[in-house]
Amino acid sequence: MVAELPCDDDGGSFSATAWVNAALRDGVEESLDMHLSVLLTKLQIAAADADAEIQQVALELAAVAPKLAREIGALREQASALRSELNSLTIEAQAISERSEGSVAVLRETLSAQRRLASVCETLASAERVSQQLLSAEAAFERGELADSATHVSELSESLGALGSRGGELFPTAGSRLDRLRASLLEVLQPALLRAVAEQDAEAMRGHVRVYRALGCEEKVRTCCVECRQGPIFEQWNAAKRGADPAAGGEVSGGMTTFWGFLVSYTRGEQAWIASVFPGEEAMLPALLVDALGSLKPQMEALLLAALAAKPNVQPGISGEAAAGSAFPIFYVSEQAVACSAAVGGLLGGVHSVSVQEAILEPFDEVRTV
User: Fold this and answer.
1) For the stretch 101-137, what's the b/e string if a residue is b when 16 or more beta carbons lie within 10 angstroms of its beta carbon?
2) 360 near 333, Cβ under 8 Å?
3) Which residue, among 278, 308, 293, has the nearest Cα to 359 in the 3D structure?
4) 329-348 b/e with 16+ CB inside 10 Å = b?
5) Rounded to a whole number, what is the distance in angstroms from the first to the last CA of the chain?
6) pTM for this structure?
7) Tell me, what's the pLDDT at 245?
8) How far apart are CA 112 and CA 120, in angstroms?
């Protein structure tokens, strides 16, 4: 009979009674007493082996225990030392943070003071520059160096603008001195500007444009040019009006035809001159012509109406050269005005020509309604 001894593989569900019954059931060949005796002997041997094994394991554990105790103690000491070091580092970090906050506050105040000093230095440098520019501008004006004086005035104006409200505090009289100097420059420059416009001196005009731009008054040059260059138109009209006045025995066709011819040649010459002085200012000449013709419109209408009253025999079917010698040549004059309008419009081109063409023909609108 072979009986399997109990082992640890039973998973904790071992039953001694069940094991004994199973051992006695398995094919018993000898007597029961003998079988029990053998089974008891096997159990005693197994118990002795288990006891010996337990003692061996206990001895091994006893031999290892001191080493484990020493290692555990060392680990405990290391953990304690690490905890102490960590506490020291925490305290040190707090101290550094407190010191750093104080240092940062000092550094922040230092940087703020540095910025204030830099601002003061910049203001002083600007103030010195303003003072030098003001003196240079006045000295150049006294020497008659108008272009240099205007350049210094432009720089001075920019420097005062950069200082803002501080400029008035540092230089309470600089603004008024600058205005007086600018006015004096404009007053001195005006005769030369008028002469350059009258003589159509392109080189001198370009110099005036630069100087007036530096003074911030470039528009004055354009205004002066428009007003002064209308003079030849008015002069030519006065001559044409005297020759075309019916009350003085003149012919309206002759005087006004001469005027329309002059207007075409005038437009051609002025266009080239203005382009050389004011490049890109295509609207300047049309504005000049429209303004001048608008001023002359009442006189033109009056002259045409006087001619109409003096020669009431209208011959609308006559045109061209026949109309010029007819009893009422106003139709010929209107044809000349239309031709002038077309020629001037062709020279000017673009959208600006339309207003000029309308200004040329407007005086005849009043005559058509009579």
Assistant:
1) eeeeeeeeeeeeeeeeeeeeeebeebbebbeebbebb
2) no
3) 293
4) bbbbbbbbbeebbebbbeeb
5) 158
6) 0.56
7) 55
8) 12
Q: Are 212 and 220 spatial neighbours (Cβ–Cβ below 8 Å)? A: yes
Quick check: 313 and 326 in contact, CB under 8 A?
A: no
Report the 10 Å Cβ neighbour count for 359: 20
pLDDT of residue 265: 92
Q: How far from 8 is each of 13, 88, 203, 348, CA to CA, in Å?
A: 10, 53, 122, 120
Report the alpha-carbon distance of residue 9 to residue 12 in Å, rounded: 8
Question: How far is residue 347's CA from residue 264's CA, in Å, rounded to a whole number?
Answer: 9
Closest among 201, 337, 356, 205 to 282, alpha carbons compared:
356
The DSSP letter of residue 349 is -
Per-residue DSSP letter, 145? -
Question: Within 10 A of 180 (CB to CB), how many other CB atoms are there?
Answer: 12
* CB of 220 closer than 8 Å to CB of 182: no
CA angle 253, 257, 262 (to 5 degrees): 155
Backbone angles phi, psi at 196, to 5 degrees: -65, -40
Averaged pLDDT in 10-residue chunks for the chain of 370 residues = 51 72 68 78 86 85 78 83 85 76 72 76 70 78 79 76 68 76 83 88 88 85 88 89 59 74 91 89 90 91 77 46 47 81 88 88 73
Residue 199 is encoded by which pair of tokens?
A: 């003589």
- Give Cα 241 to chain centroid, integer Å: 56
Among candidate residues 330, 348, 181, the one with its CA nearest the CA of residue 267: 348
Give residues with Cβ within 8 angstroms of 185, minimum separation 6: 141, 146, 149, 150, 153, 211, 215
Tokens representing 300 are 């033109």
